Amino acid sequence: MSIDQNQLRLLPSIDELLQSSGGAGLIAQYSRGMTLRAIRAALAQARLDIFNGSTCPSSEQLLAAAEQTLQQVMQPHLRSVINATGVIINTNLGRSPLSQEALQAVQQVAGGYSNLEYEVEAGKRGSRHTHVTTLLRELTGAEAALVTNNNAAAVLLALSTLAMGREVIISRGQLVEIGGGFRVPDVMRQSGCMLIEVGTTNRTRIGDYEAALSERSAVLLTVHPSNFVISGFTESTPIAALAELAHRHNLLVMDDLGSGCLLDSAQYGLAHEPMPQESLAAGADVVCFSGDKLLGGPQAGILVGKAEILERIAKNPLLRAMRIDKMTLAALEATLRHYQRDEAAQHIPIWRMIAARPGKIASRATRWASKLQAQGIDARTQRGESTVGGGSLPGETLPTTLLAIDAARVSQPLDELARQLRMRNIPIITRILRDTLLLDPRTVLEEQDKEVVLGIIEVLGESVK
Ligand SMILES: *Cc1c(COP(=O)(O)O)cnc(C)c1O
Q1: Which of 70, 167, 411, 439 could form an S-S bond across to 216 if both were Cys, CB 3.0 to 4.6 Å?
Q2: What is the CATH number of the domain that holds 201?
Q3: 319 C-alpha to center of ligand 1: Å?
Q4: pTM of the entire predicted model
Q5: 433 and 342, same structural domain?
Q6: In 3D, which of 157, 111, 435 has the Cα closest to residue 315?
């Protein structure tokens, strides 16, 4: 191997690069230490390239390589992405985007001190839970409310308070795994209660619960199956019948709704998602649900129900380990206020997406397509379906119009195009169905439309057949 010593000798020194105006610019932006490391790496790569027969890069090229490394390294690890998947509550993509009002509330509270656990008028210690209890009671008709950092915590906390060392009766049709490893039977074991399964996967009658009652029974639990539907020959026991049975035997009914839906989903052409107010009215003693599913707020667990029961839960020392954070509380209160003011469907992003008019979505898809066509990209629109996701309304879809790019019209495989769209500064997450790359405007925030079109142009511009 003949190494070109002359080419190696042409490489500038680290100091030369650091002291150049380009180097100084990088130091100002990224710190001296980070810049030094990136320049070292760029020089090492250049030496390797020269060994392999390349000529010596210019100082500008070396600094550009260093800058690229710095940009990559210094990019926030947790960052925003564009959700073009059409799954509205996408757990992998952070579930519910917050409303503008919720964001402002977080900023207000988190950027300074707050009355998180302080009663301003009395000038003494207060409780963080009081900030949302009145609202939750008003919105659900519950006697009392309590919040935790997520719904899994709410379930664990409630069961461990109400049924530790005792039996919890649940239908076999509801022993579900929600995703991310949340399995109802495991959570029940962790909370120290014994699981008594009754009925069959598709049918559980009130008599099945009744036959399982014993001295050790504490709670009849119902769990919303969330991410699947059993169809055909099915029967589940209504809450009212369970409550009647439980209360006759001095037991409690707990309902894990998963998604706390405070608006009637049926008005948007979806199936009716069970609502906390309905469970409570039917006699459930405690109902729990997530803050970031159909409620459209921050990650949180919400417990509503009978005052006496929630007082017991609030005294459980585990609550301290599951307590809600001030930023979450601020966002949760602002989100609940949208329901109080009857403006949830206009202000909460996931409800705006659910309620979006088909014509509006179609015109966005058409606009995307025509902008792309103007750049020589063979994009088209097609009818498709969006889903609600997030363990709510399983099997339910909303008609939508998708932007479609066919594999036959581009020179690269679709999964490579999808990867390049994900590798952008603001990653664009799409889906591939057979031979078509699909983007759903429903889940793309309107202010991101430009970025979507630009992203496709930059990725596809050179790959058009
Ligand atoms: C989603 C879900 C949970 C878990 O809620 P997190 O807020 O994600 O902790 C529990 N139970 C049911 C039925 C669910 O759908």
Answers
A1: 167
A2: 3.40.640.10
A3: 17
A4: 0.92
A5: no
A6: 157
